[in-house]
Amino acid sequence: MAPRRQTPSVRLRRMAAELRRLRGSADLSREHVSEQTGINEATLYRIETAKAKPQKRTLMALLNLYEVPAEQREYLFALLKDATKQGWLRPYHSELPEEYTAYISFENEAQSVRNYESLFLPGLLQDENYARAVIRGVLPSATDDEVEDRVRARVERQAVLTKDKALKFWAVVDEAALRRVVGGPAVMSAQLEHLRRMVKAPNITLQVIPFSAGAHPGMPGQFVLMDFEDPMDTDLIYIDSMAGDLFLESDADISRYKAIFDNLVAVAHSPQRLGLTHQGSGQRREGEGRLGRP
Fold it and tell me: The HTH cro/C1-type domain covers which part of the protein (predicted)?
């Protein structure tokens, strides 16, 4: 039996992606890098695809060739230090780069994202005012500048849905996410209208689990399942909790969350039965059903 391939860690994958980007920015092929550094092309390929952890001197040679500034070098060497650790649980930080860099990077590289949300609408489907109300509510001690940085980042993330090779996004939300009046009736009404427009895109699927479904496997909390174009690039699970950002990457965790998502899809209403009028908004159009009804 062939040995089981080790799943690259989040840190190793993050470093590999950065090294690919840096080589691209330097406009160098792997062959050219090999000629100038003496690093074997096959070794470089394995490093850039997170199949091998570079030695410190190898990483230094690459960073020197790419003329990487000191601050970024420190970041990459920090990744290298703990590159083989599985999972990444980080304490919460209010600074945007510390909180979102890893997740946004993976989301941007993903081929498809499956997202379950129990309390809020998915970040990729939020309009600016709803996002602002969510962030202010979740982070009551954040400054105005911190809130606006996060709002800007959330809105900019949504470009993955409209880029040339658009992300395939499948979201399942609990009905509570649509019933909760975030930011007041006017903000919620505008958000639902925004959602109505967004779900018309062929790469976006949205389903709602009605209250009548009772208890279901998603009730413990939200999660995101990301997969990537390269079949050798393993899927990732992302969980945002009060304890920090948790990335899961073992085969067992991935299989478990895929099964949970499939179960949620099964108990949710089909996309064709999606109604987007908030019960308390008083704005139902003629012929439009209430939430979760035809």
Answer: 19-73
Query: Which domains does the chain carry?
Result: 10-81 (1.10.260.40), 96-273 (3.30.870)
CB 235 within 8 A of CB 228: yes
C-beta of residue 116 within 8 angstroms of C-beta of residue 216: no
Bridge-based pairing state of the strands 168-174 and 204-209: parallel
Q: Which two tokens stand for residue 236?
A: 């990732």
Its pTM stands at 0.71
Among residues 180, 177, 172, 194, the alpha carbon closest in space to that of 128 is found at 194
In DSSP terms, which residues pair with 205 in a beta bridge?
A: 170
Return the number of other C-beta atoms located less than 10 Å from residue 28's C-beta. 17
Local structure of residue 5 (DSSP, 8 states): P
- pLDDT at 217 > cutoff 90: yes
- Sign, CA dihedral 142-144-148-22, equals negative
Contact 223, 238 (CB under 8 A): yes
User: CA distances (Å), 284 to each of 287, 290, 292, in order?
Assistant: 8, 8, 14
Q: What is the C-alpha to C-alpha distance for residues 224 and 213, in angstroms, rounded to an integer? A: 21
